[in-house]
Write a structure and sequence with these properties.
The complex is a heterotrimer of chains A (548), B (276) and C (273).
Chain A (H helix, E strand, L loop, with lengths): L1 H14 L5 E12 L2 E12 L3 E5 L6 H9 L6 E6 L2 E2 L10 E4 L11 H11 L4 H14 L15 H13 L5 E5 L7 H18 L2 E6 L2 H7 L2 E6 L2 E6 L1 H6 L4 H6 L4 E9 L2 E4 L2 E4 L9 E7 L5 E3 L6 E10 L4 E8 L3 E9 L4 E3 L4 E4 L3 E3 L1 H9 L1 H12 L2 E3 L6 E2 L1 E5 L7 E9 L4 E8 L3 E5 L4 E5 L2 E4 H6 L3 H8 L3 E4 L5 E2 L1 E6 L9 E9 L2 E7 L8 E5 L6 E4 L5
Parallel strand pairs in A: 3-8, 3-9, 6-7, 7-8, 18-29, 21-26
Antiparallel strand pairs in A: 1-2, 1-4, 4-5, 9-10, 11-12, 11-14, 12-13, 14-36, 15-35, 16-17, 16-35, 17-34, 18-33, 19-20, 20-22, 22-23, 24-25, 25-26, 27-28, 28-30, 30-31, 32-33
Chain B lengths: L1 H4 L3 H22 L15 H8 L1 H33 L3 H16 L2 H12 L4 H8 L11 H26 L2 H9 L4 H30 L2 H6 L7 H11 L3 H32 L1
Helix pairs in contact in B: 2-13, 3-13, 4-8, 4-10, 5-8, 8-10, 9-10, 10-13, 12-13
Chain C lengths: L2 H29 L15 H8 L1 H33 L3 H16 L2 H14 L6 H25 L3 H9 L4 H30 L2 H6 L7 H7 L7 H43 L1
Helix pairs in contact in C: 1-11, 2-11, 3-6, 3-8, 3-10, 4-6, 6-8, 7-8
The chains are: A alpha+beta (548), B mainly alpha (276), C mainly alpha (273).
Chain lengths: 548, 276, 273
């Protein structure tokens, strides 16, 4: 349906029968507290259009709408409405009406009086008001609800009252500020259809603000995508979906796989170290580009038939289809040794106490941290050595009151003795060793972990083993560029946690690798090695954008 | 909507004239010598020096602070349980209790205080009852005891209501959680209820202590003509002896003491909240 | 609570009620005493009421108290409402300045506010009397009105006023037909607070009045030293007036609540049809 409308617009434009320009934003600039919220917006809106301003919260879309409604004045620029600059006109002198986000129905009036409000202000005769309101309530399907208080209405009904209240004044433009945001998913779908129907029926321009891309795609004739006070792209839903101008738009409109690529020459793009045919042209030779592949354009096939190969990481049933994640390249990983010891706890029968501690690894950074902050050192060592004392009869924990140790930056083993108040002691070795870290330039990541000692029963007793392994090994990963932590998504080990024999076991920690989201109708087994395939026209090549 | 801003202008002018200017006048008088003509005024610290060098005035100040402190503590001790009791009642009983507690405060304070004269007099109701069991008569009127009774009577509803409000705001599931985590009734009161009612206690303290320090009709009605608190001294200097400069200085000292104590309680409140 | 505790608590609460109400009951009872004694009830009579009615000062006191309270309530409610609405749209610096200034009469001891006004009036050579008393009352009532309206304005959906203007209402029309109806509960409670503050005030009135214009509090205060049971009669009148006022107020709100409930029940019934 929306396709048709766009096409007729196109046809009219090319034929020279331009639809009338109703609203022109000219270089609108708006600041709040010195912060630029709108950075020079230029936008034309035509008669009878359903225009959607789409973007995340804080992109300026609501500000733009409020400027048009007259609730804010732009710092710079003009708002031309019907050939007249209305930038400084108060809202009550503007020939347009607004449906507010939370409806803003007057709580002290019933439904009828809410809808009649604007007409009463204009001092229209009573019988005319009655006719108009009744007709409007019929349009929104609430003809029997006039006497009802607004709080007696459901969210969807309040929504219709708000629409009727605005439309009854016969505005040239209706502004809608995320009007469906407060409704639940099912109701929202219904209202989307209804709004579109109403717009067709009354034949006026609707300007609709939302952050919901699906909503924008289903309802609009024209979508305006905004970000950080700028317009990113203006176009029909199909244009924007199929030919996003940059990575930001592609990401915002539907879920996409976006990979880094290089344009070898026209119709030839390289990513994941392989060359593929594509339909795009006009980029510079060897220009770095973003390649967008929609999940529904990818197919899972046997490895031999695939253009890419990978391992299925997860599948999620989404009602109509399965969302399958295929990893084509592993993430950064690091392997450490877990030494399982059989050390028995120290028993102090005189005091009725038992005590234990593991040997543990630290690196030079840890040692210098302890030297700089000696007040935290004891707690750090107790934690790493997992030193504990307890009363074997009641199983209650007993505090460790004193530690004896020396700190040295040189590699080697240094004994640490833990004391309780009752005089029980246990000694473990602090092993100073180079840090075990791995830098993966291709992923731009660094991962880090240490070898560690553990007792079999502690492994058996762990209630969240993967998390405990990360803590015991002090496993962490960082982005090389900004130093932000990167999530470690998998912990691999090859032992039965319930009974681990003493010995040494490798534990591997991994970050996320290259992943493709694929929409499939069939479920694929997790862990299966599969191929991925696509057609040349499914690759959408975009210029590398600075933003996003 | 900028149009609405203009509606504040009349009140701003009004407040500058009738709230700010009189306060400045007090400061001006407190720092000048006698002679109420603006042209001949001269700056002086004499009024303050006089107050702090005369043991009589210091005694009155200390007595005021002592009486206010005793009143506050009495209101807190006598008022906490009723507040707790009401907060535990069902919704309808809560409303009834709140009405019972607030109703006396709606009646003119002078009227209610006057009634205590008849009750506390040497041949008053209490002494008559004590006489039946062979005690007394005990002199209560024109003693500090009478003043404190009068103040507690007048101010205790504020304390009860403040604590009650903070207790009703408390999420009932917190106590269940405390019990679930092994706290007995007394422990959960001490570690959950009491700390959470602290904001109410603090605002109750301010609402009792401040009027108690500055009150002058209760002491002069129940304490007699010889019994002086700071308020009575100020009244004297303004309405009887006419030394407004010295009276202003005393008022300033009192106001500063009150502002400082308010500031401290507010600080305590804020840090408590932060810790919570 | 265990039954034992409840009994114990109940006794404590009864003692509290006795403490709070004994003086009030005492006052009423002894206003009908036939003898002059404040402690021995000799028999029922209304002589102290007759005496009060013949006492010009007392009758004037009642008249002035009511007159001042009514005018001060009306004026302070109007000014306070308009100011609060204006402040809610003003810059937050102005807002916090006005709020700070309003704190002064609320937080300062009454006696400080009182002597400030006393000196202010005399500095301007204004003779103290009815007008000064009225101005003083309006002055200390407005901050309470503003304080009770501000929260209502803060919780008011700003879109409501915008919606009204969007539908063509001028700012004044918006004020009258949308904003004020929405904050009505705050205005009413502000007016109620103003009325009782004015009705009960002693300290500020005591310093701000003159020329024989006295309210009930001042009358009671100046008569405190002589044994005069007609003060009890006056007190009884005050207690009855306040009680009547509270009853009327509560009955009206109860009726309103009932009506609303019935309306809602009717609508619910309609909906289920």
């Amino acid at each position: 349906m929306s396709d048709n409308v766009t096409k007729t617009n196109e046809v009219q434009k090319t034929a020279g029968i331009m639809p009338k320009k109703l609203i022109q934003f000219k270089n609108i600039v708006k600041k709040f507290d010195g912060q630029l919220v709108l950075k020079g917006i230029n936008l034309d809106i035509y008669e009878n259009e359903f225009v959607t301003l789409l973007g995340p919260s804080g992109c300026g879309k609501t500000t733009l709408l409020r400027i048009l409604g007259g609730f804010l004045e732009p710092d710079e620029g003009e708002v031309i409405f019907d050939g007249e600059n209305i930038a400084n006109l108060p809202p009550y002198k503007r020939d347009l009406n607004t449906v507010f986000q939370k409806y803003a129905l007057f709580p002290h009036m019933n439904v009828f009086d809410n809808v009649a409000f604007g007409l009463k202000i204009k001092k229209e005769p009573k019988d005319i008001i009655y006719q108009k309101v009744t007709r409007m309530l019929k349009l929104v399907g609430l003809e029997d609800f006039g006497k009802r208080g607004v709080h007696e209405m459901s969210g969807g009904q309040q929504q219709r009252v708000a629409i009727a209240r605005a439309l009854v004044n016969e505005p040239k433009v209706l502004l809608l500020d995320e009007p469906l945001g407060a409704l639940d998913a099912k109701l929202r779908k219904g209202m989307q259809r209804e709004l579109k129907k109403i717009q067709k029926e009354v034949g006026i321009t609707f300007i609709f603000v939302t952050h919901d891309q699906e909503e924008a795609l289903t309802m609009s004739d024209k979508i305006v995508i905004m970000k950080d006070g700028n317009i990113q792209q203006i176009g029909s839903p199909t244009d924007i979906y199929n030919e996003p101008v940059n990575r930001y738009v592609a990401n915002f409109i539907g879920e996409s796989n976006i990979v880094d690529g290089i344009m070898i020459k026209d119709h030839k793009v390289m990513f994941e170290d392989r060359q593929f045919d594509c339909v795009d042209a006009g980029f510079g030779t060897n220009e770095k580009v973003d390649v967008v592949i929609r999940p529904e354009d990818l197919d899972i096939v046997p490895v031999k038939e695939g253009k890419l190969r990978g391992i299925v990481r997860s599948t999620l049933f989404k009602g109509v289809h399965y969302e399958t994640v295929v990893e084509t390249k592993a993430g950064t990983s690091i392997t450490v040794e877990m030494v399982v010891s059989e050390d028995k706890p120290v028993v102090n029968e005189a005091a009725g106490e038992m005590m234990s501690a593991n040997d543990f690894y630290v690196d030079a950074d840890d040692v210098s941290e302890m030297i700089e902050h000696p007040e935290n050192a004891d707690a750090f060592i107790i934690d790493r050595a997992d030193a504990q004392a307890w009363d074997p009869t009641s199983d209650e924990r007993i505090s460790i009151t004193k530690l004896d140790y020396e700190l040295s930056l040189k590699n080697g083993r240094y004994p640490v003795t833990f004391h309780t108040a009752a005089g029980t002691t246990v000694t473990a070795d602090m092993i100073v060793q180079e840090a075990n870290r791995f830098v993966a330039e291709e992923h731009g990541e660094e991962i880090y972990a240490v070898n560690f000692f553990k007792k079999a029963d502690e492994i058996a007793e762990s209630i969240a083993l993967e998390t405990d392994l990360k803590i015991w090994a002090n496993a962490q990963a960082y982005d090389l560029e900004d130093g932000n932590p990167v999530e470690i998504v998998s912990v691999e080990y090859d032992f039965d946690p319930a009974n681990v024999a003493p010995g040494s076991y490798p534990v591997t920690f991994k970050t996320r690798g290259y992943e493709y989201r694929v929409d499939t109708t069939k479920e694929t087994e997790v862990g299966a090695v599969v191929g991925l395939t696509f057609d040349p026209e499914d690759l959408h090549i975009m210029e590398k954008s600075q933003i996003g | 909507m900028k149009q609405f801003r203009r509606m504040t202008y009349p009140y701003i002018v009004w407040a500058l004239i009738l709230i700010v200017a009189p306060m400045l006048l007090i400061v001006l008088y407190a720092f000048t010598t006698k002679g109420n003509d603006v042209v001949t005024t001269r700056f002086t610290l004499h009024n303050f020096a006089r107050f702090f060098s005369d043991s009589l005035f210091l005694k009155v100040l200390l007595r005021s602070l002592k009486v206010a402190a005793i009143t506050t503590i009495a209101c807190l001790l006598l008022g906490y349980y009723p507040a707790y009791y009401i907060a535990k009642c069902s919704e309808t009983f809560k409303m009834r209790w709140v009405l019972i507690i607030t109703f006396p405060t709606w009646i003119n304070m002078l009227v209610r205080t006057y009634a205590w004269i008849g009750i506390l007099q040497d041949d008053g109701i209490i002494n008559t009852v004590l006489g039946w069991i062979g005690i007394g008569p005990i002199q209560m009127m024109y003693t500090e005891f009478a003043v404190i009774v009068g103040m507690v009577y007048n101010f205790i509803p504020f304390m009860i209501l403040q604590i009650y409000t903070s207790l009703t705001k408390m999420d009932g599931s917190l106590l269940e959680a405390a019990n679930d985590l092994g706290a007995n009734k007394f422990q959960s009161f001490l570690r959950v209820t009491l700390p959470l009612s602290l904001p109410g206690i603090i605002s109750g303290i301010t609402l009792v202590f401040l009027p108690a320090v500055s009150s002058f009709c209760i002491p002069s009605m129940l304490g007699g003509g010889q019994y002086m608190l700071v308020g009575n001294v100020i009244e004297n200097y303004f309405l009887h002896s006419g030394d407004w400069n010295f009276g202003s200085a005393i008022s300033m000292i009192m106001a500063i003491i009150i502002i400082v104590s308010m500031y401290i309680t507010k600080k305590v409140d804020v840090t408590e909240k932060k810790e919570a | 609570m265990k039954p034992k505790k409840r009994i114990f608590g109940g006794i404590l609460m009864i003692l509290l009620v006795i403490f709070l109400y004994a003086p009030i009951v005492y006052t009423i009872v002894f206003s009908f005493n036939s003898s002059k004694s404040l402690t021995k009830f000799a028999g029922f009579s209304t002589r102290w009421f007759e005496k009060m009615l013949n006492d010009r000062t007392m009758i004037d006191g009642i008249k002035y108290t009511i007159l001042i309270a009514v005018i001060a309530t009306i004026v302070s409610t109007i000014i306070g409402t308009l100011t609060a609405i204006g402040l809610s749209k003003s810059h937050r610096i102005l807002k916090s300045c006005v709020e700070q200034v309003n704190q002064l009469p609320m937080m300062n001891p009454d006696i400080v506010t009182a002597i400030g006004l006393l000196m202010f009036f005399s500095a301007l050579h204004i003779n103290k009397g009815f007008m000064t008393l009225l101005i003083a009352h309006i002055m200390f009532c407005i901050p309470y009105v503003i304080l009770s309206i501000m929260p209502k304005l803060r919780s008011l959906d700003p879109n409501l006023a915008e919606a009204a203007m969007d539908l063509g209402a001028t700012p004044m029309r918006t004020l009258v037909s949308v904003i004020i109806p929405q904050i009505m509960p705050g205005i009413i409670s502000g007016a109620l607070i103003a009325f009782t503050m004015s009705f009960d005030d002693f300290v500020i009135s005591y310093f701000a009045t003159g020329n024989g214009v006295n309210n009930i509090s001042i009358v009671v205060y100046t008569m405190r030293k002589r044994t005069n049971p007609s003060i009890n009669a006056l007190s009884t009148v005050v207690i009855v007036l306040i009680t009547l006022g509270l009853i009327i107020y509560n009955v009206i709100s109860a009726i309103n609540a009932k009506r609303r409930e019935r309306e809602e029940a009717r609508l619910r019934a309609e909906m289920t049809d």
